[in-house]
Amino acid sequence: MEQSVRIIGAPTDYGANRRGVDMGPSAIRYAGLAEQLEAADVIPLDVGDIDAPRAEVCDPDTTPPASGNAKFLNETEAVCRRLADEVAATLTEGHLPLVLGGDHSVAIGSVRGSARDADIGTVWFDAHSDLNTPATSPSGNVHGMPLAALLGIGAFDAVEWANAPSLREENLALVGLRSVDEPEKELIANSEISVFTMSEIDQRGITAVTDDALAAATDGVDALHVSLDLDWLDPGEAPGVGTPVRGGVSYREAHAAMERVADCGLLRSLDLVEVNPVLDESNETAALATELAASALGKRIL
């Protein structure tokens, strides 16, 4: 039976400094997402975007769960609750949810929805570790906090809408890090999270690193969630992202990693986030996102 993939847009930019990532879902669709998925022999089912009011009509000065700074937290909560319900319903109906961000804060909703009735592991392909809290974040941008929220760290402890209790540190793997704040480094050092920096990819190769990340994430769980921030790639490959950092993976390395994801056979849900068409060149980052989604879902050269 062919796999069906339900495309869910989450057009937010509450969590980011630069405006424009709210247009990411439209840019990815326009770049030919449905055609790429069909080429991977999956059936695309697009349900449009969940409701996400524009930041211009929202109040950024919301009260965080504890002392600190977290902009647009009320709006982020509302979107993530809706997205979690949509992802969970998609899985119940037998489809694989493909979430199009928006900024990376939407992953709070996608992971919680995927983890609602299953023990899942997660591989986080990203330049950043996203483990800041309202107390440690230098910017207050929630797109740097989704993993802290999901794991219940710091101010997010016992925050029902943000926590994913079935996601354990030992089943979380971060791949491609090259921009980590000091509090995040300390947190990682005292955790059971598996971390693979760009230096390790340089030394060992992308397939060996991805295989180790997948092994850690899937050990003893039912299935896998993959969250792919397009800033994981080098800005020369993906210029249209919210927070570009030089020294990321190449085009072929990214495809090779997604092919390993497909080969593991446990993919349950997938995010594509932080595509910013305002900063892009000829929509090439959005087009790359469509190709990587297809590779993760089984598309091959032969």
From TrEMBL:
The keyword Hydrolase applies. Its cofactor is Mn(2+). One of its GO terms (molecular function) is manganese ion binding. PROSITE patterns: ARGINASE_1 (PS01053), ARGINASE_2 (PS51409). Its EC number is 3.5.3.1. Binds 2 manganese ions per subunit. Pathway: Nitrogen metabolism; urea cycle; L-ornithine and urea from L-arginine: step 1/1. It catalyses: L-arginine + H2O = urea + L-ornithine. One of its GO terms (biological process) is urea cycle. The keyword ATP-binding does not apply. It is an enzyme of class 3 (hydrolase). One of its GO terms (cellular component) is cytoplasm. Mn(2+) 1 binds at H104, H128, D130, D229, D231. Mn(2+) 2 binds at D126. Keywords: Arginine metabolism, Hydrolase, Manganese, Metal-binding. Belongs to the arginase family. This is Arginase. It comes from Halonotius terrestris.
